[in-house]
Structures are given as C-alpha cells and as structure tokens.
Amino acid sequence: MSGIFTDSAVLRALGEHPDEPPVRVPLTAVEPDGPARGGIVVLHESREFTDNLLALMRSLAAEGWLTVAPHLFHREPLHSTAEVFGDNLFADFDAAFGWLTARGVYPDCVGVLGFDDAGTAALLVATSRPVGAAVSVSARGIVHPLAEGAPALVDAAPRLQAPWLGLYGEDDPGTPRQEVERLRDAIARAEVATLVVSYSGLEHRADEPPEFPVDGDDNDPAAQAMMDAQRRIFDWFDGNLR
Fold first, then answer.
1. pLDDT at position 212, please?
2. Do the Cβ atoms of 118 and 107 come closer than 8 Å?
3. What is the pTM of this model?
4. Where is the Dienelactone hydrolase domain (predicted)?
5. Neighbour count for residue 45 (Cβ, 10 Å)
6. Contact 4, 58 (CB under 8 A)
C-alpha cells in the first residue's frame, strides 16, 4: 500500500553478545503509488520530521522512489544536544540501505540525500558504498574534517564512486566560498559525474521548500533558488539511478 509509514531496520553491528536481541534503527518511509523504480535514503540533521522534510519525501515518492529516512538520533536521550556524525551515522545508513535492498531495490538504484553534517556523510557514503547517486546539501567539513578520523571533503572527493551533486548557499558562514571553490577543484579529479552549485544571496540552506509571499509572488530570488535546488535534486536522481 502506498503512503507514509514507520518501520525499523536491523543494524549490521548487533553488539558484543550474540544472544541479545538485535539492535534496530527506527525508520520513516514513503512508498510510491506503483512499483518502485529505486530507493532514496534521506539523512537529515534534525530530531523531528518537519512538514518540509515530509513534503520532500512525498515528492520523491511521487517520482517513483521508495524513500526512507533513518532516525539518526535514536541512540540519544530526548534532550541531548549531541551532534550526529561518525560511525553511528554510517551504520544507520547501512541499515536503511539493507532495508531497501531487502525490498528488491538494486544497490545501484539506491540514492542518498544528506543535509548539513549528514550531507557530509552522503558524500563519504558515495566513496565507499555501492550506491547509484548522492546529493549533499550544505555539507560542511570541506577543508577541515568534522571529526577525528574523518577525511575532509576535498580529500575524499577524488575517490567518489557514484555521481555526486553538492548544493550550497554562497553566504553560508559554515561553508565559505573559497572552501567551496576548493571542493569544485577536488571533485574534478573524480572518475564519476560531479557538480557543485552555489546560490547567490542564500545563507543556509538551498533545500527547503520555498514559502511564497501571501500575494503569490514567486519571483523572489531566494524562492527561485530553492525551487531550482529541488529541481536539481530530482533531476540528479532521475538521470543517474537507472
């Protein structure tokens, strides 16, 4: 049955004691109306599934993608301020990836879409997992790694194994223009299709659905940039997940 639903996926790392029940990752998923043409794992930097995020997932499903978002904060207490990055994030991606392939989605028909630090993870996933395409929005850690043991994106980018699209706001202080330019140079050395798009006048971020003025005027440059960013996300998956 099509629509939005919750489920869970088994983590590959089941803990030190094999007789313990398996650890599971909670998921929110949206099915397309008909047979899925592939799957999209959505990695997001928020405890909540906002209306904008759910609308994006529904839109992806309307294009034929079985869309699934692991709950990245499932290990953290409710009021924890911990950031999600590192081994746990990649383990949650792997669980969601396995959930999709168990439902008949071929690995090269799985895309990954990440926001903020999870956008950084989406690029790194595309260097080491058999995904078909990746999109990162406002991915930090371009020159300086986000965490000890993690590569900077300029170092990881030449090792991309799947087509990768990066979306940035030119005025985002977390991703300075000069760093984004260095990332453009780095991805040019990859052996797959790559593209970085920067949006003038946007601070953070280019992925949210635009909120139009009450008079219906959609000519605002920021609104146009956000619509263009969403179009590029959809086109990237449409053109590379086959």
1. 43
2. no
3. 0.89
4. 30-238
5. 21
6. yes
DSSP letter assigned to residue 208? S
Query: Tokens representing 208?
Result: 């949210």
The residue length of the chain stands at 242
Q: Give SS3 for 117.
A: helix
**Residue of 97, 122, 104 lying closest to 25 (CA atoms):** 97
CB atoms within 10 A of CB 141: 24
Residue given tokens 């080491």 in the structure block: 128
- Torsion angle of C-alpha atoms 140, 142, 143, 147, degrees rounded to 10: 50
Percentage of residues in the chain having pLDDT higher than 90: 62
Q: What would the DSSP string read from start to end of 124-174? A: HHHHHS--SEEEEES---SSS-SSTTPPPHHHHGGG--S-EEEEEETT-TT
What gap in Å lies between CA 138 and CA 135, rounded to an integer?
Answer: 10
- How many CB atoms within 10 Å of residue 184? 16
What the block records as the tokens of 92 is 């949650």
| Helix ranges restricted to H, 6-145 | 51-62, 87-102, 117-128
